[in-house]
Amino acid sequence: MKRAVVLLSGGLDSTTTLAICRADGFEPYAISFRYGQRHGCELVAAREIAKSLGAKEHRIARIDLRVFAGSALTAELEVPKTRSATEMASGIPVTYVPARNTIFLSYALAWAEVLGATDIFIGANAVDYSGYPDCRPEFICAFEQLANLATRAGIEGARFAIHAPLLLLSKAAIIQRGLSLGVDYRLTHSCYDPTSDGLACGACDACQLRLNGFREAGLIDPIAYAT
Predict the structure, then answer these.
(1) Which domain holds residue 99?
(2) 191 in a structural domain
(3) Which residues contact 166 (CB under 8 A, 6 or more apart)?
(4) Is the pLDDT score of 191 beyond 90?
(5) Predicted confidence (pLDDT) at residue 128 exceeds the cutoff of 90
(6) Does 197 map to a domain?
(7) Predicted local confidence at residue 130, as pLDDT
(8) Which residues contact 202 (CB under 8 A, 6 or more apart)?
(9) What contacts 200, CB < 8 A, 6 or more positions away?
(10) Fewer beta carbons within 10 Å, N or C terminal of the chain?
């Protein structure tokens, strides 16, 4: 089996991406990040998901993006709640973490070189992407070009491929694809602002997009919500 590095946040999208990676015949090596986020719920989820979906190895890289602040996910800024679909679709929200996917993919690229892998999977989505510029198709293409210019493996003839299998899927379609691959969404965590006991808030952008995806798929979200 060809090796592949998979970015695994513990959320719905990255979990589905890990399942797709395996289904496509790759041996997945999952990488998650403790980057100074306000809670650790997603990392607890990522550990369980990596085991459940048979990742060959799961590593958690420790970096601290709090030194830059600038995001409600890494600083004491209020997480937006109960925003309308129109509001979520306009502008870049305060939950955007500056250059996060660029940083994460760079770590994945470094590990891929060490593993002798040329495939990297990311759960970026440009349909329900909440205004994040580093979830657009243009970004994925640009990073793939960078990967092949900035590495010894690329210079010596290896061709890196950045796989974003969810890029143009709706949240409902992502959920249906994951279920067809045996994903247990009870293990996942998507909320930006969970309660102290780990319950999803039900009102942040991530919760609303997730809940709407299950509704559109004609399903009930299996995780617990505070509201």
Answers:
(1) 2-80+93-185
(2) no
(3) 13, 16, 17, 20, 123, 124, 125, 174, 177
(4) yes
(5) no
(6) no
(7) 61
(8) 191, 208, 211, 225, 226, 227
(9) 189, 190, 191, 194, 207, 223, 224, 225, 226
(10) N
Q: Decide if 198 is inside a domain.
A: no
Residues 142-152: what's their mean pLDDT?
97
Residue 218 lies in a domain: no
At 88, is the pLDDT very low, low, confident or very high (cuts 50, 70, 90)? confident
Q: Which domain CATH number covers 26? A: 3.40.50.620
For the cut 90, the answer to whether the pLDDT of residue 35 exceeds it is yes
User: CA–CA separation, 143 vs 98, rounded Å?
Assistant: 16
Distance CA 120, CA 110 (A): 11
Contact between 183 and 132 (Cβ < 8 Å):
no
Match 């399942």 to its residue by tokens. Answer: 19
Total number of domains constituting the chain? 1
